[in-house]
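Lab notebook: predicted structure, single chain.

Context: the supervisor wants predicted structures on file for every construct in the current expression panel, including those that have not yet been purified. This is the next one on the list. No modifications to the sequence; it matches the entry in the shared construct table.
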Amino acid sequence: TSFLIFYIFKPMLLVGLPGAPKAAPESQGLARDVEGQNSSTPAPEGGMFDRWLAVHRNSIEQEPYIIALALAYKAVIAEGDNSAWAAVILYVLVACRYLHMLSYLLALQPWRTITFVTALAGSGFMAVLMLLDYAF
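Prediction complete. Output recorded below exactly as produced.
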């Protein structure tokens, strides 16, 4: 565990801390017109660069847990009863994370949520499989 903490998670957190980005005052609510007054139209959403930053932030929040879980599963349970299921779940996790990244960048809202929840549920199933193989 100290290897994961000191050599994997710490550098990932140094690259970018997770959390919501600080929005500029203009983007909080209404846009400003030429005179600097609040306009009646909502402020435009961020561009592609902001989406890439959000994808990166989401990746450093979710993927280290999945990587640690997969490595711990292989280290703790070399040949368990559910190792075939664990491999399938890991493939589903990787596919869902890639699809989530693409749907985030392309602003495909229902698919973004579906892939995120599927990957989140898959990581939970992987943790349960590890506990079942380790305990029984």
